[in-house]
Amino acid sequence: MNLYPIEAGNFKLDGGAMFGVVPKTIWQKTNPADANNMIELATRCLLIEDSNRLILIDTGMGNKQSDKFFGYYYLWGDYSLDSSLKKAGFHRDDITDVFMTHLHFDHCGGSVEWNADRTGYQVAFKNAKYWTNENHWKWAIEPNKREKASFLKENLSPMHESGQLNFIKGKESNIASTSELNFGIFFADGHTEKQMLPMIKYKDKTVVFMGDLLPTVGHIPVPYVMGYDTRPLLTLSEKEQFLNMAAKENLYLFLEHDAHNQIITVKHTDKGVRLNETYRCEDIFK
Q: Is the pTM of this model over 0.90?
């Protein structure tokens, strides 16, 4: 097995929204804001080369939305999904599976693209199976008012219409294994219904793709929960459960949204679970 970080692009979000009830005087120490109160974020995806499978976890925002849409998110940097795949030695047509932690636009927007004459949309990975779970799919296509702006129809309909959409089967609570893909899954419901975090056995390590359960290093303290979470009190208990496990088992946490920290480990301290070590992907994916 080989693992490759796929940088799909950088953006910014309001720091207050990203840290909920935590005061700016505290969160800006780890996530400094610009003059507009925006903090720097990444859409860092993960590519798994496993035998004859090439599995891409999340796909970033994509590039099909309008300039007005992207104007809200202050895109920055030169990363793109295609250039990152090329750097790893692959093309999007090589991808056999696209696994989506959840279907918010910044996690699945790159899964769909304009068609050739820009009259409609098509899947961006024509040879891939697309993976979500049935509970989350229903949650996304019948969105609540709080999340409606994050579940975009143009991101979802082409997956279903193409016939490439598949549902992960099995027990959808806490930690589950999946027969469809060669990794475990930690299910988390606080951010959105049935978010799926892959737990990948890599050599002598377990690498966990953290999605939106732990967006950045600054979010490690348990009460530091995003304002975007639909069930923040549930996130509290899920984070506490997960971080205690991560510290005990020395899990390697792959951060999707932290623009400046790629992989971390955590440890138990007198103040609770805190940062242990930070790593570059090349340090771990040797």
A: yes
Q: Which two tokens stand for residue 164?
A: 């490439």
Q: What is the chain's pLDDT, residue by residue, as a tens digit (286 residues)?
A: 999 999 999 999 999 999 999 999 999 999 999 999 999 999 999 999 998 899 999 999 999 999 999 999 999 999 999 999 999 999 999 999 999 999 999 999 999 999 999 999 999 999 999 999 999 999 999 999 999 999 999 999 999 999 999 999 755 446 556 667 789 999 999 999 999 999 999 999 999 999 999 999 999 999 999 999 999 999 999 999 999 999 999 999 999 999 999 999 999 999 999 999 999 999 999 8
What type of residue is 204?
D
**Continuous H helices in the chain:** 15-19, 24-27, 67-71, 81-88, 105-108, 134-141, 153-161, 232-249, 281-284
Which structural domains are found in the chain, ordered by start?
A: 2-284 (3.60.15.10)
